[in-house]
Design a protein that fits this description.
The chain is 43% helix and 22% strand. The chain has helices at residues 60-76, 98-111, 117-132, 138-145, 178-191, 193-215, 219-235, 241-252, 277-285; strands spanning 11-20, 31-46, 51-53, 82-88, 149-152, 155-158, 165-171, 257-261, 269-274, 291-296. Bound molecules: (3R)-3-hydroxy-3-methyl-5-(phosphonooxy)pentanoic acid (PMV).
């Protein structure tokens, strides 16, 4: 059984939220993604074979997928005799980058001190392919670097923030796997190719403008751009009643901007950007156990004990 609290020797990798640019990033446009305070802990102890021990409550299909991804990484690392335990503090399968965080924490645990940042990111992305097929790489890059990133075509640039960013994350319920939502968008692109291409290009521009706003501390503009991005995602059929409702409730609670985050579709998470941490904490309470506040200050994250 995994402990309630991660042990002190655990490697940590954060989950993420996409502020601007999901889906467009799959087609080579830019996305702006931010790590969150919740993530995945992994710790390795000597054993007589390579083994991944999952927390109780992991479903059979999640278990199969995770074991397959772990086998892939164990093989690349030369089957180290380690038993790796996992502890999640980020909600799973909600668009919050839990699979990328698991991959990064797992790889850090098995590579130990030999895991250079580059090697960790490369192997974690390889594990991610087991979960998503053809991921853009934005999730694993954000988790591995634990920094606000402007990401396009496999390349990430760190965006330094002039002021902390305060968010509320709202969980709206189960959603289809990312690869199915991405396939749904592909179908729409076949039906209205020119319009879809225009929308996706516009989303990429919003992400680049959002990076400039974050760098300059213009949180109000960043929020406005998130609202515009949400409108386009809805136009592309990637939102739902629950996601729209969460976005409107977040704006009513004072969010400067609100939108879905991650693949979206039938459910998953919505985010709101707030001017201060106390406003975010107050707004999160309105959503009970389905909402939580998270802050990004830009300070380097501690990922190893
Ligand atoms: O798997 P999710 O929900 O975190 O979605 C990631 C964002 C997408 O742009 C939809 C997919 C990708 O690979 O970038």
């Amino acid at each position: 059984m995994a402990p309630q609290r991660a042990p002190d020797n655990a490697a940590f990798a954060p989950g993420k939220i996409i502020l601007l640019g999901e889906h467009a990033v799959v087609f080579g446009h830019a996305a702006l993604a931010c790590p969150i305070e919740r993530g995945v802990y992994a710790w390795a102890i000597p054993a007589n074979r390579s083994q991944l021990v999952l927390p109780a409550g992991t479903t059979t299909s999640q278990r199969q997928l995770l074991q397959r991804a772990a086998r892939r990484a164990f093989a690349v690392a030369g089957y180290p005799k380690l038993s790796v335990r996992i502890h999640w503090t980020v909600p799973v399968a909600m668009g919050l980058g839990s699979s990328a965080a698991l991959s990064v924490a797992f790889v850090r645990a098995i590579l130990g001190r030999e895991g250079t940042p580059k090697a960790v990111e490369r192997l974690a992305l390889d594990m991610e392919r087991e979960f998503h097929g053809t991921p853009s790489g934005v999730d694993s890059a954000t988790s591995a670097r634990a920094a606000l990133l402007l990401f396009a075509r496999g390349r990430a640039r760190r965006v330094r923030v002039a002021a902390p960013l305060n968010f509320v994350v709202v969980l709206t319920g189960a959603r289809a796997p990312t690869r199915e939502v991405v396939a749904g968008l592909a179908e729409r692109r076949r039906r209205i190719p020119a319009q879809s291409a225009r929308f996706l290009r516009e989303i990429g521009w919003l992400a680049r403008e959002g990076a400039v706003a974050a760098r300059g501390g213009n949180v109000r503009l960043l929020g406005e751009l998130m609202n515009v991005n949400q409108g386009i995602l809805n136009a592309l059929g990637l939102s739902s009643v629950a996601l729209e409702s969460a976005a409107f409730r977040l704006r009513d609670a004072g969010a400067l901007g609100a939108k879905l985050t991650g693949a979206g579709g039938s459910g998953g998470a919505a985010i709101g950007l707030f001017a201060t941490r106390s406003q975010a904490v107050r707004a999160a309470r309105m959503f009970g156990s389905s909402g939580f506040a998270t802050q990004y200050t830009g300070a380097p994250a501690r990922t190893r004990p």
